[in-house]
Amino acid sequence: MYQPGVTEAIWHFAGYLHLADELARARIAYEEFLREQYIAAEKFGVDPELTSIAPVTFEGMGANATHVDLSHTKDTSYDIRIRFKHDANVPEADIGHPVQGDQVQQFIANLYFAPGVIEPNYYLIRFEGGDQKWIEIHQTNHMHTNNYVNVVWESGIADLHDVDVEASLASMMELAEAAFPEAYMPDGATGAEILDFFVNHQEEIASSGEAPPQVVQGVYVNGVLQAEGTEVKLDLFDDDGHREGAPPLMPRALADDDEEDESEDASLADAGAIEPAEAEYEGPFQAAAVGGKIADNTAVIVDANEACGTMVVMGNWHVTNAIFQLNIYSDNDHVSVAGAGNGFGPLVEAGGNVAMNRAELADRALFDDEIDNRGMTGFNWEIETVHGDFYDIKTLFQENYVCSTDITVQSMSTANYSLMVDHTGQYNLISLSDLGSSYDLIVVLGDYHSANYIKQMNFIEDSDYVMSASMAENGGGGQSVYTGQNYLLNTASIYSYRDGEYQEVTDELESFLDDVENANYIQPETWWEISGAGSTTMNVLYVTGDYYDINYICQKNVIADVDTAVQMFSPGGGAGGQYLSTGANTAENYASIYDFGAYGDQFLGGEMYEDSMLVQTNIVAGDDDDIEYGDVDQLASELVAFVDTSGGGSGDDDGGGFMSGAEIANGGDMLGGVMT
Fold first, then answer.
1. Residue 638 carries which DSSP code?
2. Three-class DSSP labels, 468-494
3. Which stretches does UniProt call biased (Acidic residues) (predicted)?
4. Does residue 424 lie in a domain region?
5. Non-local CB neighbours of 505 within 8 Å, separated by 6+ positions
6. What does the pLDDT look like over 473-502, one tens digit per residue?
7. Angle at CA of residue 325, ends 319 and 331, nearest 5°
8. Fewest CB atoms within 10 A around its CB: which of 30, 154, 290, 496?
């Protein structure tokens, strides 16, 4: 007989005996548990068939985390998540695939009460812990690009434009600072500075003796509260990514019917255009689009760290919710145009800038019905103690800086000449989801400081200098010049999910809190007399100091698109036309904060101080367009000085053209999307 095998079999058999003994003892404890459970159920009117309940949990939320769709992105969104392991100091980055879904409805749908595990051997344990977080994220893009096409520097073309871009942006930023109340403008750009600001702000409100400012909840568009159910159109982009109100598509040559391919219609499309079809020329044309920059910030914070069954604050409770939105632009264009007259569109279309702000402030309940689990909660206690203050700080900073000074000259008139310069984009996207620790009870012996804050700013400097002359034969195909048509959008929302009522701290509650701190065990009935929220094993966070809960998003887009564009169409170019667009820039900010609190009872030992603020403003720093309709011969004589003839001969060398086209020369800093 193989001795090791026998020994192993005996060892397993002994293990089975041990397991049976444990099961027998567990059955006795389980029956005792059920007996007490039925007594509690009879007393509190709870279904006795429910023998255990698990805490509300936010686990598994990663795939359905809230997100914001970019308006110009078709059928997709980007969900970049950071998940937190409660036993690790460093968050784990989790970059998900593009997902779709409704926003907070999907989030709430994943809150659930799952069947719990019966734990008949009652216990109470204490340990130092606390799921504290201090998160500070900065996303910054800097792009500086100058493009020069067919430029003769000796001609002085660079001196046509007299805009001091740096001074103009500095002036606009001063106007922006003056538009916001100083009492709500944090200094600095670090989490510590943001925290200090809100603590001082809230303590000043508490000590002032005056009623804090309050904003009526709802949806606001450009400072106007919308009636409930009103649909606000913010998505001005069609399925192809073309924006309403932007210039039409760049023109293309008229193709033969048997060669025309509809699938290529949008190949030369302006990034901001919406018209489904381009103009067609039966001859050569000049077309240039030198604007179309995009700067976009998207940020979402889902803060479920304070999501709990019951919240107890023995000190004062401070709450600040604030949204600040600003759009400011300068669009002073000079346009000199002369020639054949109106062709496929307006001869000169200036202005048409759109600036919009949308904001929503809303308090919502996690559950429609009151949660009352008396008779099933408080049999076991796991108490995390934080000696001192508790910090849950999340600050996100997103900035895009796009600076472009383009100079383009087009003179070829014997062939189709399409020029698209600098249609670039800068994007910041992040979704920060803190799913919390599923606390049943949070106790704060000090003050509670809560703040949800969103600040959004868009700056566009789009002052252009345009000269367009056409001497096309037989009136030509016409001229169209578009300056302006910029789009500035801020949209923000703060949703607070918690029970809206606050109860006073009673003697029974104070006695219970003393047990939480000192007792070897807490009887379930003691908890049932206080609250119906919780789970069979109570997960408790006990903070001896103050609690700081800050969610902060700051977004800024700066676009400087100062262009000089010259077009000259010669008399030898047939019946061609001209198209020129220098604006159509887009600056967008999207931000949402979802802040979750207690779904059950809230107890307050001190005073409640709650303030809210909303500022939405659009500032036109400059919109003075100078449009001159002149004599074509006179304007053409001025443009000759700016045209480069060194790239080829004139006359018969290019098929009879008045001027030949030089090779494209690029200059300046072509860095794009540099992170700093």
1. H
2. EEECCHHHCCEEEEECCCCEEEEEEEE
3. 256-267
4. yes
5. 312, 314, 603, 604, 605
6. 665 667 889 999 999 999 999 999 987 788
7. 170
8. 154
